[in-house]
């Protein structure tokens, strides 16, 4: 009898091993019966003779060999198909909570034909596509492999893609003619300005939030809020004056003196920001410099996220090289947030499929519109899949409550291995996969009528985590847990790395930055006056 603490997978293998032994023995018995053709009356007595003769009679080896091969084949097939990797002790039955099945079983339940998205190697039912996806795990555990597989399935069926792509890791394999690239340091980049998105007066206020994000710190948010007011009113004034260019915007918000900017914004709601202590205005100007300065790198052009979403074709790649991130982080975050805000202006069309893949979401600034895009964008056909390394880092960027609200938007998850030192993320991942209540056999010692010990068996209910935090620390690379939205079971899956050809260079440095790093073309040289 198997021990009470044996896992279900171990118990399954034990029974299968016993079955393989029985299959081998049965094969030998059949071989003996065929070779000796003994009548049933003496068959039992003849087995001893046959057993002693087996080593010297090669014809008797065929039966047990066939039995062993059949038993081994069944062992391997059943283990591969039904091993769940559930780490808890075996149980009699599950009363409540999510189920845990093997990867092949989950694939069999979710495969519904051709044209399905692929998430961590699992085909996604069409009803689950707009429930939003989440990929979490430490560096090198398999997030990028999951992202690449998802992108490949998106492009294979002709859906449109917006990919926030560090180091061009995905673009180098999936870029196609007609795709657009955004990276001010890349020669192939589209020219963009925030003014390209402005169609009505309230757009200035809407996109000012994307340019200067909200801060989880109450004190810092005070300065950010005033900075947004100044940005919004500056956008409005420049549009009215016919000076709606990035060069003029950067000049006024980072280069112009306080008195000049005060004069420009006189009579607007932003005028009040210039009354008060000098230190207050200095804090506001610091915020403006931090978030507006990266816009100076932008090449001029007429690319518009709103126009591309409404009428464009192909995919959009927002890329950077890691040494560029600190210089471009506010700008990249602005682009992603403008995309989320622009999606909300699209007309409702559930048949549309637009995918926003944002690897390393926790490397960007706070995105103010991503929660609205994840919840309300579903009606517009938007599917979002962010990658996150650490939930603690997400809390630091968004604040604990806002980070929890953001996580609540993603109902289908793939959770990979976590560093041993990041116990918080491992604990949260374990809680996210849920608990189940199961019935197990409980054994004890009782006294029989004759005073001798006898086993007394009963049943007990246990409520426990399906996956413990420690199991996330022990996961091999390219391995993780998939839980799809709805009543689909949980499964531990193992992905395979797929080598793909490089079709385009991940970065082609623009000539101005490559040849003349100190040239005036890198910085705006607008005159101080208007």
UniProtKB/TrEMBL annotation:
Q: Where is the Type IV secretion system coupling protein TraD DNA-binding domain positioned along the sequence?
A: 117-495
Annotated CDD domains: TrwB_TraG_TraD_VirD4 (cd01127)
Task: Describe its membrane topology.
Answer: Multi-pass membrane protein
Where does the UniProt annotation locate this protein?
Cell membrane
| Gene3D superfamilies, alphabetized | P-loop containing nucleotide triphosphate hydrolases
InterPro entries documented for this protein: P-loop_NTPase, T4SS-coupling_protein, T4SS_TraD_DNA-bd
Give the stretches traversing the membrane. 15-36, 57-79
* Protein's UniProt keywords contain Acetylation: no
Tell me which UniProt keywords the record has, alphabetically.
Cell membrane, Membrane, Transmembrane, Transmembrane helix
Q: Which GO terms describe its cellular component?
A: plasma membrane
UniProt name for this protein: Coupling protein TraD
- Organism field: Variovorax paradoxus
Task: State which gene encodes it.
Answer: traD
């Amino acid at each position: 009898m198997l021990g009470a603490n044996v896992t279900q997978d171990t118990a399954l293998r034990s029974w299968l091993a016993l079955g393989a032994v029985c299959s081998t023995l049965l094969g030998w018995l059949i071989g003996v019966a065929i070779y000796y053709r003994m009548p049933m009356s003496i068959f039992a007595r003849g087995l001893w003779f046959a057993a002693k003769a087996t080593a010297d009679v090669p014809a008797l080896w065929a039966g047990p060999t066939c039995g062993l091969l059949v038993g081994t084949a069944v062992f391997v097939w059943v283990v591969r198909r039904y091993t769940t990797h559930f780490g808890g002790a075996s149980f009699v039955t599950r009363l409540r909570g999510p189920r845990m099945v093997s990867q092949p079983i989950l694939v069999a339940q979710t495969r519904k034909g051709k044209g399905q998205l692929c998430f961590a190697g699992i085909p996604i039912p069409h009803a689950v596509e707009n429930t939003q996806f989440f990929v979490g795990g430490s560096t090198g555990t398999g997030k990028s492999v999951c992202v690449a597989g998802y992108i490949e399935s998106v492009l294979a069926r002709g859906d449109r893609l917006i990919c926030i792509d560090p180091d061009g890791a995905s673009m180098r394999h999936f870029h196609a003619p007609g795709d657009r690239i955004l990276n001010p340091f890349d020669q192939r980049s589209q020219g963009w300005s925030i003014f390209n998105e402005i169609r009505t007066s309230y757009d200035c206020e809407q996109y000012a939030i994307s340019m200067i994000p909200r801060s989880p710190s109450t004190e810092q948010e005070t300065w950010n809020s005033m900075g947004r007011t100044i940005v919004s009113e500056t956008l409005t004034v420049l549009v009215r004056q016919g000076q709606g260019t990035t060069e003029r915007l950067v000049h006024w918000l980072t280069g112009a003196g306080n008195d000049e900017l005060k004069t420009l914004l006189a009579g607007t709601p932003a005028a009040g920001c210039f009354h008060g202590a000098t230190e207050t205005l200095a804090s506001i100007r610091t915020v403006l410099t931090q978030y507006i300065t990266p816009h100076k790198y932008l090449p001029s052009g007429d690319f518009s996220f709103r126009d591309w979403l409404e009428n464009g074709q192909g995919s959009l790649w927002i890329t950077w090289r890691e040494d560029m991130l600190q210089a471009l982080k506010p700008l990249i975050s602005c682009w992603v947030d403008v995309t989320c805000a622009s999606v909300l202006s699209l007309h409702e069309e559930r048949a549309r499929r637009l995918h926003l893949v944002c690897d390393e979401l926790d490397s960007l600034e706070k995105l103010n519109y991503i929660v609205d895009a994840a919840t309300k964008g579903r009606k517009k056909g938007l599917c979002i899949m962010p990658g996150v390394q650490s939930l603690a880092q997400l809390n630091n960027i968004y604040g604990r409550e806002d980070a929890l609200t953001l996580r609540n938007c993603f109902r289908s998850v793939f959770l990979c291995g976590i560093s041993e030192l990041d116990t918080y993320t491992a604990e949260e991942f374990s809680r996210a996969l849920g608990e189940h209540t199961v019935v197990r056999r409980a054994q004890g010692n009782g006294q029989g009528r004759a005073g001798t010990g006898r086993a007394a068996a009963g049943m007990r209910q246990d409520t426990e985590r399906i996956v413990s935090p420690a199991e996330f620390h022990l996961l091999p690379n390219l391995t993780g847990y998939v839980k799809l939205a709805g009543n689909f079971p949980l499964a531990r899956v193992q992905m395979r790395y797929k080598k793909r050809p490089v079709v385009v260079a991940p970065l082609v440095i623009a000539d101005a930055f490559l040849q003349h790093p100190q040239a005036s073309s890198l910085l705006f040289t607008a005159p101080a006056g208007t």
